[in-house]
Write a structure and sequence with these properties.
disordered N terminus; mainly alpha; 244 residues; two-stranded antiparallel ribbon; 4 strands; two-stranded antiparallel sheet; 75% helix
Length: 244
Amino acid sequence: MDALINNFFTDRNSNAKTQLFFAACFPFFTLFALGIDSIAFKENYFDGRQITNILAILYFSFFFWVSGSYLRRLMFVMVFLSYIGEVIFCTLLGMYHYRTTIIPLYVPFGHAIVYASGYVFAHTQWALKNDNLLRKYFAVGFALLFLAVGIFLKDIFSLIFGVFFFLILKRKKWQNLYYFIALCVIFIELGGTYFQCWKWVPKTFGLIPAANPPMGAVFFYAGGDVLLSKIVDYWKLKTIKSQY
């Protein structure tokens, strides 16, 4: 039993350099793929949505292939979990909307890529070595970010949900994993809204002023990440027990 558990967690670090390569390419791939799905691209050339869909699935597939079994499970579950989240927050609650009425196919795969990139960054030797120092810088940096957008952009959404973000982090013992994922989320949100692939509504629920994009959106990703880890850990234990 102990050997199975040790093998499972050792597998997390397989192909570490290749995983880091895909995580490092995440910003460049994001800008390239979202640029093709942009309104400007459509107006000047053609609707590139299907190309972006294919690119996202291919990138996800290669990233998935080089990852260890634990990260693979996280990515696999994230695709389905994020689609459910899109239906809830986009379709039902109308917190944001895409440039078309249909949720793009690339979005769930994109969420998985975002999560995997943050996960890989958080598990690099540098991040693990500087864990305590990074926690302090991240805490101060995100607090200032939420306050800044709240004061200067009147983004009350980020002030409110920024507090909830920190409450989740406190419950998860301030793991830097959530900060790294949040950084990837902020990057993709800025890129997506810049290219007008999607847009957040000015007032969430018709009441709470929000920027486009609101930095407090990281709370919803963090909440999803907590649920994701619980699902995968349960899956992991079921697998180990079945092999024992």
